[in-house]
Amino acid sequence: MAQVVVVGSYVQDHAWLVDRFPQPGETRRAHGFNTGPGGKGFNQAVACLRQGVTTAFIGAIGDDHLGAIAQNFARAENLPCRWQLHKDHPTAASSIVVAANGANQIAVNFAANEHLDTDFVRAQDDAFARAKIVLVQAENNLDAIAMALELGERHRLTRIFNPAPAVPGIDAALLRRADIVTPNETEFSLLLERIGETHVDAATLAARSDTELHALARRLGVETVVITLGAQGCLVSHGANRRGDDADHYRLAPELVNTIDTTGAGDAFSGALAAAMVLFHNAPFRRAVTHANRVAAVSTETVGTAPAMPNFGAVTRRFPD
Fold this sequence. Notes:
33% of the residues lie in helices and 21% in strands. The chain has helices at residues 40-49, 65-77, 118-122, 125-129, 142-154, 172-175, 185-194, 210-217, 265-279, 285-299, 312-318, and strands at residues 4-7, 11-17, 32-38, 55-62, 81-86, 92-98, 104-109, 133-136, 158-161, 180-181, 224-228, 234-238, 249-252. With 321 residues, the protein is an alpha/beta fold. β4 (55-62), α2 (65-77) and β5 form a beta-alpha-beta unit. The chain has a domain at 4-9 and 44-57 and 117-318: Ribokinase (UDP-N-acetylmuramoyl-L-alanine:D-glutamate ligase), CATH 3.40.1190. It is globular and about 50 Å long.
């Protein structure tokens, strides 16, 4: 049985590569195009599996051509999936524009992901019963996510919540069902405003001191908060449980890589973090975060999302300790 259960989204990505983003009303010639499997949940499941950790994915797709692509890719990856197959809702799809500097703009229709039934999730109780970690995001309907966290709590799993995107329905009660949350700057800023009753400009977060970020993270009421800061690395903030770390907060610098496409880097981080917590379960939490940071960095050197997730060997050869 799987050590990590990922409950989340599948999205078929369509990506256009351009020299720069088009202005409103402007048509720009793309110099490349690719389509492939994505969605935060599926990306994270692939990232986790490729670290050598047994992983199961639970999600919803349409009974259509894109849904068949999802199933075929999962089989090729040897990723066990429990699909809720919808006849009335299509498989989700996205449009991604990637600029030459690696930045991206994304539009997505979550489609079947927004109809993942709580009863279907509850019916997968056996997958949770033998796992160690459950990982969720916010590209599904939140009642399904709440059910996944409830099952994780029932079976005493470590619960990781990547609150992305930071949709309005994420409240304190839902967020605090997780042991670990992994927002980026924008998501952290929105959660602070909604839950911590504090307004902080997301653009200023990376430049703030580690002590300031730690104090802000404590406002969320979650035991461990890991803020991914893009080119500024990531900040770890612990409450009473330091998960084996010496310090209650610290920042890890980003790894130096040849960035081509940052799409999915946050998913690479969250999926790899779950895997690394299994792989390095006797080590301090910092060891798991270091590996996740490296996986995310290497993922940016390849265009795409799920197919761009590097495997454990590629990452450890690149960053030998």
